[in-house]
Amino acid sequence: MDDSLPGLREMQLFVAVYEERSFTAAATREFATQSGVSQHIKQMEDMLGVQLFRREKKSVEPTEAAAVFYARCLDVLAASKAALELREFKTGLAGEVRFGLTATLATHQLAPAYLRLSAQNPNASVAVIEARSDMLMDMVRANELDFAIIPAISKPPADLSSRVFAATPAFLVSSRSHDASGLCHGEAIGFEQLKGRKLLAPHSREHGQWIGAPKDLAAGSAPHYQLDAVLATLDLVRQSEWMAILPGLLFIHDIDTAPAEQDFCLNPFAGPGLTLELRVVRAPQTEPSALAQAAIDALRQVTEEHIERLRNFARLPSAT
Asked: Where are the domains of the chain?
């Protein structure tokens, strides 16, 4: 009997043969060859000085020694797996982060950013709230959120720390299936082309400042449009001839897919274009934790990638 012991790989092969009662099935399960598995088992038997399997014509039967060894192998492999899992605690940041987003980012940017953040920080707890801007700011004030990212259609709140997160191009959005605009997807337009169209827009100072358009832009339009009703606006535009001016980040999947798969026709604005600024707001007392900053960075990375795609689609100059 050899004084050395089988390694983890040999134990895995033994367990597979024991459970499958077949060298061939064990080889398939462990992505090995039948001859390789048989050779490993023979070496283990020589090393341990006992017979582990009786080779029958159509089956492989474990011996009593194999039954004892099988139970011990399961213990060793379980301990090895636990040790590997513990190594993950050396990776990334730990703790908890809670943040809020409006639909502008939650629709398409949150999922890839969330996956990146969790992959880089497997021991972190991440909670995300989607809500209107005013609700998110109230939650930040109450210390229920570490930060929120909101559209900046008015002055930043004086009682919260605020800084620019990104600026997304905006587009005139209309329905592909109810097209009454006569515009081609991707065609640049001027503000003067909006007059007389069924445009969802409020008679509000903030919206007027954002779009930089004449105050009578939405004259004659009975509905009042608010950014915090984005999803309802999208559904209305999809099902009718109404149009809206919306942040491009909501349409990252519509810019380069086949026409048959596109729900919306997107038209950028000519000249310097039209952008919506997004801002990070947080309580002013403390700096963001390392995990909160990692969450902001993950969101920013995905958002900047998407904005660059939107700028290329709209043929706008890069922000860098």
From this structure: 8-88, 95-314
Instruction: Tell me if residue 162 falls in helix, strand or coil.
Output: strand
The pairing of strands 124-130 and 95-101 is parallel
User: What is d(CA 54, CA 62) in angstroms, rounded to the nearest whole number?
Assistant: 6
Q: Which CATH architecture has domain 95-314?
A: 3-Layer(aba) Sandwich (3.40)
Angle between helices 8-20 and 64-87 (to 10 degrees): 130
Residue type, 307: I
Return the CATH fold of 8-88: Arc Repressor Mutant, subunit A (1.10.10)
Q: Tokens standing for 37? A: 């598995």
Q: Say what the pTM is.
A: 0.66
Contact 146, 282 (CB under 8 A): yes
20-79 residue pLDDT tens? 999 999 999 888 888 889 999 999 999 899 999 998 877 889 999 999 999 999 999 888
Angstrom distance (rounded) from CA 35 to CA 40:
9
